[in-house]
Design goal:
- By secondary structure, the chain is an alpha/beta fold.
- It contains 15 helices and 25 strands.
- α2 packs antiparallel against α5.
- The radius of gyration is 25 Å and the shape is globular.
- The chain starts with a strand and ends in a 13-residue tail after the last strand.
- Bound molecules: nicotinamide-adenine-dinucleotide (NAD).
- The site of nicotinamide-adenine-dinucleotide (NAD) has 31 residues, from α7 and α8.
Length: about 500
């Protein structure tokens, strides 16, 4: 494909494959079986990980339950918990390069984005540390002279944490420090495709002094490990990030014991581009939003809804910018878009594009696999598809690749209707210089996050999550922290003024 910006393979000595083991009750444990991860960009084995079974998951939950009940973490002070979390943040920063290299090799994402993900995660740990110290309930001092009511916040208990492959270290850090800050103990299962950064996190936790058994890690697949994590009677809550299909399976599995379930699932996130927008900034943000993390991003702005008067000009701007985005070797610090996670997933992306073309859509740019000199062809071209109607699969389903879908609108009412015409509701955005337009859209968009004149900015203080089939519950921020807390009401009589219930004169 001509006129794209391709970064061919750079000289780099791949590190030895990372060897990942389970972490159970503070001990690193080998598995009877192992699984290998072949790098999507470099075609070499980059990690060899223990492959967990039901027995290993049982051991992990026994350890998590025992440490919760012993109170070695759940009953210590918030100050003591915060001290450990702050140490973890420092250790993350000291280990960015080592973690980032394996994250890139396992996932195919650019090294600059892996570094950003790992560095940024340290801030989540620091913010969670602040919550560990400031967590509090309520007091009720107006129930009457002889009564005092206190609402206590307590750790929910043992938490299963199940994470996906697209942001392994970041998503772990959206959950784990908040669960730990609340006083929970956990069992973590990373994706079988990207387990190494989670194992490295386990190493940092041990170094920071987290008591044995508080965080246990079981490596392996959805079956059987994820299944045990959703059904085990010792589990009080499951927090899951991944596909909507697996989220539904987990909800069903967890219903047997009525566990609390928090879900961060897929999205089909629109950006609405109004005629009065700063089109230069909007085009840049749309380009970033669709190609960031190789488009394999729950927050990908995978569809844009552009006013028909400016659609041609706007698409031309995005196509021109797309040609300048640097695709290629993820280990090159200049690369912005790396490899697709598996060849099966690359085929799925292409199938969406070809089906849209067959249904009458127009490929403005890209639309096929990309071969990068020295690295093979598990890459996908920057792709812009216009003439898409709301009923096409490419407009409704998560493509999870570097593919932008263009739709048009005439009135704001129509733009809002198209925005909300989705089973998903993770995020949405609008570009306009008119504050009234931005506010009306923000109030009416069915999404967990709305961005106006920006895309994908996030902060540890702000809750994140979705509505409709994008999930349930919230992550990060105070609301995310509260998910890991149970509420207990304490009712105390002051003095002995209560009239007896049993009549003494009978
Ligand atoms: P996935 O659902 O295939 O797998 C996620 C995790 O679930 C993995 O660890 C996997 O081993 C495990 N798993 C699989 N089957 C299971 C089962 N039956 N029981 C328990 N666990 C099981 O998702 P993925 O392909 O790794 O990730 C991509 C998906 O994640 C996309 O849909 C994306 O939108 C979503 N995602 C959402 C967010 C968000 O915050 N909303 C963030 C990132 C990714």
């Amino acid at each position: 494909m001509k006129d794209l910006t391709i970064n061919t393979a750079i000289e780099f000595d791949l590190p030895a494959p990372f060897v990942g083991r389970h972490l159970i009750a503070g001990e690193w444990v080998d598995g009877a079986e192992t699984s290998e991860r072949v790098s999507p960009s470099h075609g070499a084995v980059v990690s060899v990980s223990a492959k967990g079974d039901e027995a290993m998951a049982e051991r992990a939950f026994a350890a998590a339950r025992a440490s919760f009940d012993a109170g070695v973490w759940s009953r210590i002070s918030g100050k003591e918990r915060a001290t450990v979390l702050l140490k973890v943040a420092d250790l993350i920063e000291a280990n960015v390069e080592r973690i980032a290299i394996y994250e890139t090799l396992e996932s195919g994402k650019p090294i600059s984005q892996s570094r950003g993900e790992v560095e940024g995660a340290a801030d989540l740990w620091r913010y969670a540390a602040s919550l560990a110290r400031t967590s509090h309930g309520d007091s009720h001092n107006s129930l009457g002279e002889d009564m005092l009511g206190v609402v206590l916040k307590e750790p929910i208990g043992v938490v299963s944490i199940i994470t996906p492959w697209n942001f392994p270290f970041w998503i772990l850090s959206q959950k784990l420090p908040f669960a730990l800050a609340a006083g929970c103990t956990v069992v973590v299962k990373p994706s079988e495709m990207t387990p190494s950064s989670t194992v490295m996190m386990g190493e940092l936790l041990m170094e920071a002094g987290l008591p044995a058994g508080v965080c246990n890690i079981v490596l392996g697949f959805g079956q059987p490990v994820g299944q045990v994590m959703s059904t085990h009677p010792d589990v009080d809550m499951v927090t899951f990030t991944g596909s909507t299909a697996v989220g539904k399976m987990i909800t069903q599995a967890a219903s047997g014991t009525l566990k609390k379930v928090a879900l961060e699932l897929g999205g089909k996130n629109p950006q609405v581009i109004c005629p009065d927008a700063d089109l230069e900034s909007a085009a840049d943000a749309v380009t970033f939003g669709v190609y960031f993390n190789v488009g394999q991003c729950c927050n990908s702005s995978s569809r844009i809804i552009v006013h028909e008067d400016i659609a041609e000009d706007f698409v031309a701007r995005v196509v021109a910018l797309s040609r300048k985005v640097r695709f290629g070797d993820p280990l090159d610090p200049e690369t912005q878009v790396g490899a697709i996670v598996t060849s099966e997933h690359a085929a799925k992306i292409d199938a969406y594009v070809q089906a849209a073309v067959a249904a009458g859509a127009t490929v403005e740019l890209g639309g096929g696999a990309l071969s990068v000199d020295g690295l093979g062809d598990q890459f996908y071209q920057p792709t812009v598809v216009s003439g898409v109607s709301a009923d096409m699969a490419i407009a409704r389903e998560e493509v999870f690749g570097p593919v932008l879908v263009v739709m048009t609108y005439r009135t704001l009412e129509e733009a809002i209707a198209l925005t909300n015409d989705s089973e998903y509701g993770l995020s949405a955005g609008i570009w306009s210089e008119d504050i009234h337009t931005c506010l009306e859209f923000s109030r009416r968009a069915a999404a967990g996050t709305v961005w106006t004149n920006t895309w994908m900015d996030g902060y540890p203080e702000l809750a994140f999550g979705g509505v409709k089939q994008s999930g349930q519950g919230r992550e990060i921020g105070r609301y995310g922290f509260e998910e890991f807390l149970e509420v207990k009401s304490l009712v105390m009589r002051v003095g002995r003024s209560r009239a007896p219930w049993v009549k003494q004169d009978v």
